[in-house]
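Q: Give me a backbone?
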Amino acid sequence: MGTLSIPTVILGISALLIASRIIIKRASQIPQVVRTSIVETLDACIFAAVISLLIITFVVQAFYIPSGSMEPTLMVDDRILVAKFLYRVEPIRPADVIVFRYPLNPSRDFVKRVIGLPGQHVQLKEGVVYVNDQRVSEKAYTLRPDFGNYGPITVPRNEYFVLGDNRNNSEDSRFFGYVPRANIIGKAIFIYWPVQRVGFVH
């Protein structure tokens, strides 16, 4: 996932707009009518920036998919919308596709599928996932099994076990461990680009 902080960019733009507003407001050499028109335009831009910041911070945010670790669910160059508010009103569920801050480097964002919830027992036997000793059917979203073995492990409290759908090409909980609840940004809900890929994330 991209590391560019959109909220930081919006804050920077907002600061420039506010500074410009102050300068224009005090520029007595500019005719009053012109100053008023410019200030009103800047006020509208500042308002739009604040609304955008609130939406991105609390509601929904766009992310870019740079790797094939979630194929075939998410392809390289897909653009997705992530609902940041959703887990404030409902629990994280198995098979949810989530975006989170990478536990080993929180400046990076990763996207994976939730496999194990806190307290659950997870094991991979020859590529087959078992949760609490029950086999999980993954035909709907996995690209291919990797035939590897992992665990068994018990997911700690307030942490989650995640895997990529492309098991042979995914850096996930088998490598970096669990994802703390505090690192989870939100649920991937919609692919909005490219046009031929538009649709909900399953």
The chain has two domains: 6-58, 62-200. The radius of gyration is 22 Å. The CA atoms of residues 21 and 43 lie 8 Å apart.
